[in-house]
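Take a protein:
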Amino acid sequence: MTLDTFERSGLDPETYLLTRIAALVSMDASPASYLLNIGAAGELGVPLERIQGTLVAIAPVVGSARVVSAPRNIGEAFGLALHDGGEEEGAGT
């Protein structure tokens, strides 16, 4: 299903990845899914602010619960632990 989807989408690379990240949030995706797509966005040079803006834009559609759980799953994907106070901590500390 994913073979040649970028080429067939007709989207520029940044829009393509932001769209995929939005879809992951709407599905309450696993950390591994975020790792793959946000990693690709990082390699492409997509600014973190664009990813955050995407989360803000989709919040009214997918609901706050999904948008709030996304950063936790993203943090887990990259080995970060988020405390209840919202502070980040390295996985090994």
Summary: The first strand starts at residue 80 and ends at 82. DSSP finds five helices and two strands in the chain. The first helix runs from residue 5 to 9. The CA atoms of residues 24 and 33 lie 7 Å apart.
